[in-house]
Structures are given as C-alpha cells and as structure tokens.
C-alpha cells in the first residue's frame, strides 16, 4: 500500500490509527470492569479475602490499561471537528447528540466512580464499594451503547432529512436513531467482544501463574471466573456476529457482498466462500472454495431470497448516480433561490439519491457536467475494496472460533476438575492472549472500511466529509499521534508486564508468592522485584 | 409565548454551554492548577504526593466536563464545533498531546519508586497543567478579535490563518489570564486539601495568582476599550430563523463589546464578580481561611467566564475576514428538535451527575499530609 498523497486518505489513515489504538484499550476496560464486578460480588457474598485481592490485583492491571484508554479517547471526541469538519457541519445535528449524551450518561459515571473504586477501599462499606464498582462497569458499557448508536447511524442513517436552508441533514425522528437495528446488534456484538478480551486476559495470565506454580489458589479462582464469563461472552459474540451479518445483508448490501467477494448475484440460497483470492480489476475471486447454501441462510434467513452481487450493485449504483445528478441540479437551483415549488417536490422525491450525486464531486466539482466515463468510474468505485475486507473478515472469524475452542475446552476440563493440571492446555491459554485483539481490530476494520466510499452510508461520501486542512498540517499531527501513542503504549506494556510478573504480591498483603517464601534468596528475589513497586 | 420556542432553546443552550465551560473551569481549574504547582509546592517526593493525591480520585471525573463541553458544542452548535476545531487545528493537536500526559502521569507515576521515573512524570503532569488553560485562554482571546474563516455556498468552512496568527498580544494576555485563573483555583483548592509545608506554599502562590488575575483581567478590559474593535449585527439575524450563518450583516465598530452592558446593566455583575472574587480569594487566603478562599476563587472564575459570554453575545465566534459569516447563537445552532431533545437530556442528567459527584467528594474528603502519605504508602498515588 502506498502512503496517502492527499488530505482525504491521510485523514482516513490518521482516523484509523487513532481509533485502532483507542480500541486496544477499550475492550479490555469493558470486559475487566464487569469481571471486577463479578469478583467483588463473590467477595461481598462469601467474605473470602482472596476475592478482594483478585479485585485489587486485576483492578491494578485494569488501571494501567484504563489510563491509555482515557488518553486515546480524548482524541476521539475532538477529531470529528478537527479532521472531519464538513462531516461535523453536515450531520452534527444528528451525530452530535449521542456523543453528548454519552458524556452525560456514561463518561461521568465511569470516570467519577473509577476514582472512587481505586481510592475508596478504606473509606466505604463493602456494599458501597461493590456498588461503586458496578456503577463504573455500567458507565463503561453505556458509553459503548451511545458511541455505537452514533456509529450505527453512520452505517444506517435513519430518522434524518436534508434541509436545504441549513445545508445539512437534520434529525426528524430521534427514536429511529435510538432504535436503529444496526446500532442494537453492533452494541451487543462489541461489548461481548470486550467481555471476551477481559476474560482472555484474566485466563491467560492466570494460566501462566498456574504453569509457574505460584499463587495457585488465587490463579485457579481467577481462571474459573474468566472461563465462565468468557464462554458465555464468546457465544454471544458469535451469535450476534451472525445477527450483524443478517442486518448488514438488509441495509448494507455492498459491505456484505464485499466481505463475501460475491461478484455475481447467485441463485438462492447463495454459497459461502470459505477462502479465495478476490481480484477487484477482474471482478472475480480466484481459486474460491465454496460451501453451498450457508451465505444465503446467514444473510437472508431464508432459502429463497437472493444475496445481491457486487456487479449488480455497481449497475444499480450507476442508476442512482444518474438520479443523484438530477437531484444535485435541483438542489443547486433551489440553493440559488431560482427553484419553484415543483422543483422542491422533485428534490424531495430524489433526496435519497443526492448522496450518490455527491460521489461525482471527486471527479468533477460541478457534478452535473460529469461525463459518461466519470459516471462509470464513480459507479465502479461505489463499492469498497474487496480483498482487504475479505481477508480481515476471515481473520476475525477464525480468531473468534479459536477463542471459542479455548473457552469450551477450559470449561469442559474445569467441570472435570482437570484444567489446572494439563500444561499443554495451560500454554495454549497463555498463547491465546492476543486472539481477542486480533479479532476486535480486524472487526473494526471490516465495519468501517466496509462502509467506504461513504462517511455516512449513501448520504455523505468520505471524500467530501474531510476538513479543508493542508496536507502538511495533517501529516504533522499524524506523525505526532503515531510517535506519541507508540511511546505511551511501550510504557504501558512495560508496566503491565512488570506487574503481571509480580502478580498479587504487588498488593503488599503478605499472603503471596514473593512475600511468603522464607530464606534469604527468596527475600532478595522479592526485594529486586517488588521493592521499587508500589 | 411557548417556553421552549426555537429562540428560547437557543438562549438556553447558550447558557448551558456556558455552564459546562464553567464546570470545566471550576473543577479542571483546580486539577490543572495543582499540576502547575506540583514542582513548586513539593520539594520532596512525599510533598508532591500530597498535592497529587489531593486531586487523584477526582481529576478523571472532572475531565469529563471538558469532554462534555466538546460533545455539547457538537450537538448544539455543530458548525461552531466544526469550524473552531478544524480552524485552530494545530493548537487543538497541541492541547490533545498535552492532555495525553495526564492519565498516564497520575496512574503511572506512583507505580515505580524510582526518583528519575517520578521526576519525569512530575514534569509530565506539569505540562498538561499549563498548556490547556493557555490554549483555551488564547482561543478565548481570539474570539474577541475574530478569526479568519468563511464558508462557501455549501457551508464548507475555510480558514485562512495559521497557528502563529493566533498569537496576537491580546490573545496572549487572555492566555496568561486563564493560566492565572487556574493557578488561583489550584492554589486555593490545595490549601483546602493539604496540611503542612504544601499548604503553606500553596498560600503564597494563591496571593500572587489572585493578584495576577486582577491585573490581567483589568488589562484585558482596558485593551478592549481602547484598542480592539468589536462586532455587531446590523441586519438579517432572526432569532428563530434557520441555522445558516451567511444571511446577516455584521459590522466592526469600537466599543461594540461593551454594548450589552449598557443595554442590560445587570450584566455588570459578571466583571465585578470576577474582580471581587479574586480580591476575596487573596484576602481569605492571607487570613488562612481556605474554604472561603476557594469559594471566592470559584466566584471569580464564574464572573470572568460570564463576562466573556456577556460581552460577545450574541456572537460565538466572529469572522475577521468575512464578518457577515460570523457565528452567533441564533444562526449556528442545531435544529429545534435536536436542541429540545438535548435540553431534556441535560435537565435530567446534570442534577444526577452533580449528586454523585458531590457524594464522591464527600465520601473521600480528607486533608492530605506527608504523614498520611507515609502511612498509606501502598494504597495512594
């Protein structure tokens, strides 16, 4: 891939970088807060100190992760205005609301209680502290809800209409925005993905303690909590992932067809392409391995409905682009105050194709004077790049199923009380640590890259959404983000590894591995590993 | 007249956004002020930990005022959000980069007991104490001067200045004023939450910060009166018209930023509060009455921010190159429906937020001293 040479692509690269960095930390926060809530509930119910230690130790690791979640999250709130200024002006009337509600309903809850979570242990009663932990977890999850309502609207922009007087989309039905089916399935798919990340994190690190044979009681209990929560979560991820496929099949036909590299509309029920090599130029997939029927069932929930292929979508889009040119002409006339009431009504009719007219802006600023060639080109580019989506989707699904196998095995062997003895299996758990992140990051890519060429599905092309910034300004900020985030990430990983190695001994309770061992050698081990750590 | 008419909603949102920025200044004011003071009120690691722990449990919750203020701009004044953040792009990026150091500074500093590590994080916390108020102050100053932006026929914004053109002397003055305000807020808060040497040193800084606020705020007023023309709308602005900022006529004229005070004399309370609050903070600080000093400092901040709002009204951001394209509270808002929905959401959630925030302060309230830090070495930052 070439380094972007224009502001649009560079801004996209910066957004993707910032979002993907942010999304290294967010899923773990979402998952760990819930696990902390569960562990603390067990502590309050049973009164066993080890569960309190679990909350405190995993909470410490959660804090190290949370700091970077906050740091990278700040950018998210500001960068729409900074880099996607026209986007912000054009759809802010709808898109801004869930973002502001997210701050009001979720961020305050999460951020206020995260402080009390860490500093309130000696100041609050057991039940009060438990409530604090749960409010923090609820805040975290609510924030996912609102940002996904915002994102769901980008994918499936319901409840809004174009207003020519203000030159923007305006909200006409808030309930439709709230109850957007795309947002609903995305929310559950995403938070459940976070729960999986949190569970895998606890599972892998506990497995490592078990392999090392230290703090076994602590590790076993953590392992057990992670197994139960992880299995339930990965099952909902997969189930809801399937539901996403169904919803995408209804509202984002282009994304689904690209993920599947389905060039031709097949006879129902369509086959699922397990693997192959998609070729955008030739509009076909080389050496495809197909499983009959599966695709049709996922996307349409029936044996008789068709899944539209990319070539047919391009043809349809060409028609819509032509309609879009008509809409744009009317829009231009009305804007200049030369339009009649009839024109206004015609625009009302053609409104849904206005966005397709905007697609031509990348080729000719006037839109209405587009040549046949330009129209054809715009139509061909009205679908996303197939190959990256095709592969990213398969990486996500493969990781998902690998995670399912891990949690299923661990659940099975725990139920037979053998999980903690099998060293090969424990090593497998340790090595599986990156899998949720691989799945989550490629999942983000599928969802957002698959939305292209649109910033707001079928309404506002990405190329139009960008700010009028100079290339050098964006380049400077991009380099800054990459360098700054990478340095912070290295510091975070350094602390994370340091505290993972130290384990619950870092709590200074006197009950754990490095504090318990007798003899000078053990003390010196503790001294070297722990004395400089708080 | 219907209470929730479009015009009234626009006025309410002007007030609400003011409230959010005041919430930011009051709470993050002391977080950032304490961070600014960190290298100076604490000579030893333990003394610095006194200052850090005085804000540690709450700074993250406080920071949400900033996030909410940005989110509310997006929701209620989308074109303002779009134009300012892209126009002042590099300033915003610098602001963000400085803010990245805060969560990491607070959480990571105490994790390793090594002087080099901790000293580095002390400076990493100092930077996001100074840079944000400086940038917000400079931005605020530029609102009075007008910024070089305009729109094309699709309302796409273009900005013809650059980072250095933001650094007009008046804007720098306003930047220093904001730094002094946050310093005053931080020093009085730290007095309230600490004992011993840290408390005493904070007391000294409070005196100088309050003095600086009085001097700089007065200077800002004088330069506006004598040196800087304001903007006023002469025609074409309808309080319940569509949100399109290109249909009105705006002229520049001397003393325009003072017009509202003669039209609505009651608004003079704001600048008076700004000055008297700072004076009160100074006197109460000197007398060792920490709580009253903090309260006075809060009042001063509220007064100064209201002064800015009252002076600019109905402008949010004037354009220096295309005055007719200036953004005002009547032609730069969201649709009536969005303003209405967001109004109800704010009415429900702001009181809830205030309730649990206050509960959080109450639950964790105490004064920090070096002895307390020593006793709780492992559980504090």
Structure write-up:
The complex is a heterodimer of chains A (534) and B (381). A two-stranded antiparallel sheet of chain A has the order 1-2. In chain A, strands 3-4 form a two-stranded antiparallel ribbon. Chain A has a two-stranded antiparallel sheet with strand order 5-6. In chain A, strand 1 and strand 2 form a beta hairpin. Chain A is 72% helix and 5% strand. Chain A has helices at residues 7-46, 49-83, 85-119, 126-155, 174-178, 181-212, 216-251, 253-259, 294-300, 310-335, 341-359, 372-380, 386-415, 423-431, 435-449, 462-465, 471-502, 513-516, 520-530; strands at residues 160-163, 168-171, 272-279, 284-291, 454-456, 460-461. Chain A is mainly alpha-helical. Chain B is mainly alpha-helical. Chain B has one domain: Formate dehydrogenase/DMSO reductase fold. Helix content of chain B is 69%, strand content 6%. In chain B, the strands form three sheets. Chain B has a two-stranded antiparallel ribbon. A two-stranded antiparallel sheet of chain B has the order 3-4. In chain B, a hairpin with a 5-residue loop joins strand 1 and strand 2. In chain B, helix 7 runs antiparallel to helix 11 (290-312). The model of chain B has no long low-confidence stretch (mean pLDDT 95). At the A-B interface, helix 2, helix 3, strand 2 and helix 17 of A face helix 3, helix 4, helix 5, strand 2 and helix 12 of B.
């Amino acid at each position: 891939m070439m380094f972007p040479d224009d502001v649009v692509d560079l801004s996209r690269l910066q957004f993707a970088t910032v979002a993907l960095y942010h999304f290294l930390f967010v899923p773990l926060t979402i998952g760990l807060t819930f696990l902390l809530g569960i562990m603390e509930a067990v502590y309050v119910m049973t009164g066993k100190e080890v569960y309190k230690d679990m909350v405190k130790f995993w909470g410490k690791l959660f804090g190290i992760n949370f700091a970077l979640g906050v740091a990278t999250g700040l950018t998210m709130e500001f960068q729409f205005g900074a880099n996607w200024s026209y986007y912000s002006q054009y759809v802010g009337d709808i898109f801004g609301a869930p973002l502001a509600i997210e701050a009001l309903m979720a961020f305050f809850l999460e951020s206020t209680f995260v402080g009390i979570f860490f500093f309130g242990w000696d100041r609050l009663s057991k039940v009060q502290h438990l409530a604090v932990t749960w409010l923090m977890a609820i805040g975290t999850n609510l924030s996912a809800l609102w940002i996904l309502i915002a994102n769901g609207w980008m994918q499936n922009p319901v409840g809004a209409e174009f207003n020519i007087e203000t030159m923007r989309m305006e909200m006409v039905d808030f309930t439709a925005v709230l109850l957007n089916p795309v947002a609903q399935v995305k929310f559950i798919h995403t938070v459940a993905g976070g729960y999986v990340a949190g569970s895998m994190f606890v599972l892998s690190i506990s497995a490592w303690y078990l392999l090392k044979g230290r703090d076994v009681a602590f590790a076993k209990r953590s392992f057990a909590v992670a197994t139960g929560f992880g299995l339930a979560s990965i099952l909902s991820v997969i189930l809801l992932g399937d539901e996403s496929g169904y919803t995408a099949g209804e509202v984002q036909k282009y994304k689904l067809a690209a993920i599947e590299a389905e060039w031709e509309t097949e006879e129902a029920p369509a086959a699922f392409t397990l693997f192959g090599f998609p070729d955008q130029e030739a509009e076909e997939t080389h050496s495809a391995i197909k499983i009959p029927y599966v695709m049709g069932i996922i996307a349409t929930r029936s044996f008789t409905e068709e899944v539209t292929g990319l070539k047919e979508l391009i043809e349809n889009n060409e028609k819509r682009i032509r309609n879009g040119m008509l809409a744009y002409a009317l829009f231009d006339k009305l804007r200049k105050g030369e339009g009649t009431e009839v024109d206004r009504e015609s625009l009302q009719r053609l409104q849904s194709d206005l966005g397709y007219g905007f697609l031509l802006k990348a080729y000719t600023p006037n839109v209405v004077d587009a040549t046949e060639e330009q129209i054809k080109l715009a139509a061909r580019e009205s679908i996303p790049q197939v190959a990256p989506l095709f592969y990213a989707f398969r990486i996500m699904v493969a990781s998902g199923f690998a995670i399912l196998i891990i949690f299923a095995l661990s659940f099975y062997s725990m139920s037979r009380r053998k999980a903690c003895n099998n060293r090969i299996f424990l090593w497998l758990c340790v090595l599986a640590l990156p899998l949720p992140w691989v799945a989550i990051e490629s999942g983000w890519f599928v969802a957002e890259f698959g939305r292209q060429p649109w910033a707001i599905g079928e309404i506002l092309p990405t190329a139009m959404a960008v700010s009028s910034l100079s290339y050098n300004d964006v380049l400077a900020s991009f380099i800054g983000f990459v360098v700054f985030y990478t340095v912070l990430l290295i510091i975070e990983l350094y602390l994370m590894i340091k505290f993972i190695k130290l384990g619950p001994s870092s709590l200074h309770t006197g009950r754990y591995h490095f504090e318990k061992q007798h003899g000078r050698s053990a003390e010196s081990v503790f001294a070297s590993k722990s004395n400089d750590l708080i | 007249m219907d209470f929730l008419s479009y015009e009234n909603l626009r006025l309410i949102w002007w007030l609400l956004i003011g409230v959010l920025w005041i919430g930011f200044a009051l709470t993050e004011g002391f977080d950032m002020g304490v961070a600014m003071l960190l290298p100076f009120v604490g000579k030893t690691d333990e003394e610095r930990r006194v200052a850090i722990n005085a804000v540690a449990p709450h700074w993250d919750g406080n920071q949400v005022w900033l996030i909410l203020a940005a989110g509310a701009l997006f929701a209620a004044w989308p074109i303002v959000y779009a134009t300012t953040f892209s126009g002042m792009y590099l300033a915003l990026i610098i602001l963000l980069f400085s803010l990245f150091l805060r969560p990491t500074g607070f959480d990571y500093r105490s994790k390793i007991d090594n002087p080099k590590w901790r000293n580095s994080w002390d400076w990493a916390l100092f930077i996001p104490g100074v840079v944000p108020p400086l940038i917000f102050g400079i931005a605020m100053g530029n609102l009075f001067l007008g910024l070089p932006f305009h729109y094309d026929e699709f309302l796409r914004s273009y900005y013809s200045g650059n980072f250095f053109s933001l650094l007009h002397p008046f804007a720098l003055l306003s930047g220093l004023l904001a730094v002094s305000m946050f310093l005053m807020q931080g020093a009085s808060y730290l007095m309230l939450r600490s004992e011993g040497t840290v408390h005493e040193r904070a007391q000294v800084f409070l005196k100088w910060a309050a003095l600086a606020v009085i001097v700089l705020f007065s200077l800002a007023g004088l330069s506006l009166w004598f040196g800087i023309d304001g903007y006023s709308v002469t025609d074409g602005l309808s309080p319940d018209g569509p949100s399109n900022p290109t249909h009105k006529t705006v002229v520049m004229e001397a003393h325009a930023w003072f017009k509202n005070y003669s039209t609505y004399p009651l608004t003079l309370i704001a600048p008076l509060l700004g000055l008297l609050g700072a004076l009160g903070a100074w006197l109460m600080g000197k007398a060792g009455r920490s709580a009253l000093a903090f309260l006075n400092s809060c009042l001063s901040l509220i007064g100064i921010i209201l002064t800015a709002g009252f002076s600019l009204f109905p402008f949010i951001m004037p354009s220096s190159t295309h005055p007719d394209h200036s953004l005002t509270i009547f032609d730069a808002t969201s649709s009536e429906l969005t303003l209405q929905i967001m109004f109800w959401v704010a009415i429900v959630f702001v009181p809830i937020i205030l309730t649990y925030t206050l509960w959080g302060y109450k639950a964790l309230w105490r004064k920090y001293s070096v002895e307390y830090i020593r006793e709780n070495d492992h559980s504090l930052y």
